[in-house]
Design goal:
Blueprint lengths: L6 E5 L7 H15 L3 E5 L21 E3 L2 H10 L4 E3 L2 E5 L9 E9 L16 E4 L5 H13 L9 E4 L3 H9 L5 E5 H10 L7 E11 L3 E4 L4 H12 L5 H9 L2 E6 L6 H9 L8 E2 L1
Parallel strand pairs: 1-2, 1-3, 7-8, 7-9, 8-13
Antiparallel strand pairs: 3-11, 4-11, 5-12, 6-9, 6-10
Helix pairs in contact: 1-6, 1-7, 3-8
């Protein structure tokens, strides 16, 4: 392997998306590029927080993946060295039709599936969400509430869980009644804990939403960015690496462009000014 300066890959999606997926991606890129890559695992936020200089602008990261809502905010502010790599993952889902999308599944405990058999029945419930910047876990829910002629006061009690995985655990423990959970997080969770599959019920789903963007530091040489993109687009063509992707519910990586995020921009514009009041857990 080359002795050149290691590349730094940062993920903001774990633990909601298993870190094992990104370990596999980094391992594959090292093999494809012949270059050492360090994995940075940031679990506190869905993307770079607004009160800090993002790691790409600070030149502390070279490649990464984050929640699309944070990505769009950074792009709109035009104060970042983040560059969209124009690719995203195609996750396995019965409704995805091999598109780079995912859904926000409204999940309740199976014991309560008759009590909460539609969204309107959630009025006054104990609601959980992962992160205020999460499209599937919060932003889309606020937009849906507005569409229904109400706001976050619709829920009786609101708790920020910290991640989609914690939201699922809180549903299982009945600390909360329901939450909107990233469909990919739910699939990976029940695959990891098959004994819990029968205890979680998807009441309905919001979406589809555009998949999490892969980004690069704009300072990276164009040749390096091209090699990274081409390598990821070809990852599924190797039987060995395709199996590793499928382990985490990913079929392949595919080309995208900024138009994929137009719907999200519309959602964010629609729910502008709406906030969720939280009791931290």
């Amino acid at each position: 392997m080359s002795n050149s300066t290691p590349l730094r890959f940062i993920t903001y999606l774990s633990p909601s998306v298993p870190v094992g997926l990104f370990e596999a991606v980094v391992h594959y890129l090292e093999e494809s590029l012949g270059r050492e890559i360090q994995l940075i695992y940031e679990s506190r936020w869905s993307g770079p927080p607004s009160d800090r200089v993002d790691p790409f602008t600070a030149n502390n990261a070279d490649i990464g993946v984050m929640c699309s809502s944070v990505f769009l905010k950074l792009v709109e502010e035009k104060k970042t060295s983040i560059e969209f790599l124009e690719l995203g993952a195609v996750h396995t889902h019965p409704r995805s039709e091999a598109r780079p999308i995912y859904f926000g599944d409204i999940v309740v405990h199976s014991d309560n599936k008759d009590k909460f058999d539609n969204f309107e029945k959630l009025k006054g419930c104990k609601w959980g969400y992962n992160d205020p910047e999460s499209l599937s876990g919060n932003i889309s829910v606020l937009a849906h509430l507005k569409k229904c002629g109400t706001n976050a006061s619709f829920f009786g009690h609101i708790i920020q869980s910290g991640s989609h995985i914690e939201s699922l655990k809180m549903i299982l423990h009945k600390t909360i009644d329901a939450a909107a959970v990233d469909s990919n997080s739910l699939i990976n969770f029940v695959n990891s804990y098959p004994e819990q599959r029968e205890n979680l019920h998807v009441m309905t789903s919001l979406g589809p939403f555009p998949i999490y963007p892969f980004v690069a530091n704009s300072r990276l040489p164009a040749e390096t960015k091209t090699k990274i993109k081409e390598a990821l687009l070809n990852m599924h063509k190797s039987v060995t690496w395709e199996e590793k992707l499928q382990k985490y519910g990913v079929q392949k990586f595919t080309k995208t462009d900024m138009s994929l995020y137009d719907k999200e921009k519309e959602i964010k514009e629609y729910m502008k000014g709406l906030k969720i009041e939280t009791v931290y857990y």
